[in-house]
Design goal:
The chain has 372 residues and is of the alpha+beta class. It folds into two domains: 5-242, no CATH class; 246-370, CBS-domain (Roll), CATH 3.10.580.10. It contains 13 helices and ten strands. It has helices at residues 19-40, 46-77, 103-131, 136-156, 164-177, 180-207, 211-242, 246-249, 263-271, 293-297, 309-312, 328-337, 357-370; strands spanning 5-10, 13-17, 82-88, 91-96, 256-257, 278-283, 286-292, 314-315, 342-347, 350-356. The strands form three sheets. A four-stranded mixed sheet has the order 1-2-3-4. A four-stranded mixed sheet has the order 5-6-7-8. Strands 9-10 form a two-stranded antiparallel sheet. Strand 6 (278-283) and strand 7 form a beta hairpin. The protein is elongated, with a radius of gyration of 26 Å. The structure holds zinc ion (ZN). The site of zinc ion has 5 residues, from helix 2.
């Protein structure tokens, strides 16, 4: 993933900001300060408009964050791992490592987002009732936030996967049909249809002279269309992976090297002679760690003959491992989430095989080509 800035950590979840968020933040502030407030209150000064615009935009994105936090907290309660929440150009996204394994889980995880937005909207509405006669700027700010949060909830409830409404739809279809793949197919198709409607709507707007908002709506439509397509493919792939075991995917043709080998010997005798990018380090049959090309590159050439493999390897304690009976989905999650190149397959402290990303992808490709 691209570099994003971590701004906070809430309940063990990293809160990140993607550089693209700055664009939307500037755009929202500018729309508020340049158009929304001046149109309602022509006698306000420019500095008041801008101050209020920036503060309102910040509170709006705090609301988006709260919406994503709601998804994440429910996901955590259900035992899912949530890595981070990132604010980006099109709002917020929570990175939940695995797709829910039950319709009820998915339903609650999805529905809680729009519900929290409605709740936030109601809170701002109540504050608006209290402050509107006291302060005009505070009234305008709370009114806007009350409206925008309800709009956010309604928008997210559009029943096209992967939006929240589409996930709710998928959960209901999944519950009634018992078939996740079929449910995803229907919800994704709805998502694609809605995405097309967005694009058509955007084109109509452009022809009516609203060029900027037209382009924006087309962009959102395009994004939704992509997400719906990718979402479906991922589910099909995961279903396939659920049926295979690590022992069927792993290669058993691996060589182990002793930890007292020097880096120079490793290069001369193994790396240059074999295709492997990583080697298991084991002393008398016991796994000690893994050493890969990246570790080797970190050693300057003049120190290669005096540095030992044992000093440079990733030690066993820090390794991600799987067992032979783990399914393909777990394997792929381990490989991608921790971004490791190789994964030892272990049984009772013994290495049975080694797995890398290409093994998994190769397997999927073969299955797809054979149509199984
Ligand atoms: Zn949501």
């Amino acid at each position: 993933m691209r570099a994003s800035w971590r701004i906070a950590r809430i309940m063990g979840i990293d809160i990140n900001i993607d550089p693209s968020w700055l664009i939307i933040f500037a755009l929202v502030s500018w729309t508020l300060a340049g158009y929304y407030f001046p149109r309602q209150f022509p006698d306000w000064s420019a500095s008041l408009n801008w101050l209020l615009g920036v503060v309102t935009a910040l509170l709006f994105f705090a609301s988006v964050l709260a919406h994503e936090l709601a998804h994440s907290i429910v996901a955590k309660w259900q035992g899912e791992e949530v890595r981070s929440i990132t604010l980006f150009l099109l709002g917020g996204v929570a990175q939940i490592t695995e797709e829910p394994d039950k319709p009820s889980k998915e339903f609650f995880m999805a529905v809680v987002g729009p519900l929290s937005s409605i709740a936030i909207g109601i809170v701002f509405f109540i504050i608006w009732l209290l402050v509107r006669d006291v302060s005009q700027p505070l009234g305008a700010l709370t009114q806007y936030l009350a409206i925008i949060n309800v709009v956010l909830a309604v928008f997210n409830l559009i029943p096209g996967f992967p939006m929240d409404g589409g996930r709710v739809l998928r959960a209901l279809l999944w519950k009634t049909t018992g078939n996740l793949q079929k449910a995803t197919r229907i919800a994704s198709t709805t998502g694609q249809v809605i995405a097309f409607l967005f694009i058509i709507g955007g084109i109509v707007q452009i022809f009516s002279g609203l060029i900027f908002s037209g382009i924006w709506i087309i962009f959102i439509g395009w994004f939704l269309h992509n997400a719906a397509t990718v979402g479906y493919r991922q589910v099909v792939m995961k279903e396939m992976l659920r049926e295979v075991r690590a022992k069927d995917l792993m290669s058993t043709d691996f060589e182990t090297i002793p930890s007292n080998l020097s880096i120079q010997q490793l290069i001369d005798e193994y790396i240059l002679k074999r295709r492997d990018r990583a080697f298991l380090v084991a002393d008398r049959g016991k796994l000690k760690g893994i050493i890969c090309l990246e570790n080797v590159k970190a050693v300057p050439p003049e120190k290669r003959s005096t540095t030992l493999v044992g000093e440079m390897m990733t030690p066993k304690e820090k390794l991600e491992v799987v067992s032979p009976e783990d399914d393909g989905q777990k394997v792929l999650t381990r490989l991608t989430v921790k971004n490791v190149g190789q994964l030892p397959v272990m049984e009772n402290d013994k290495v049975k095989g080694i797995l890398c990303r290409s093994d998994v992808l190769h397997h999927l490709q073969v299955r797809q080509e054979l149509g199984v």
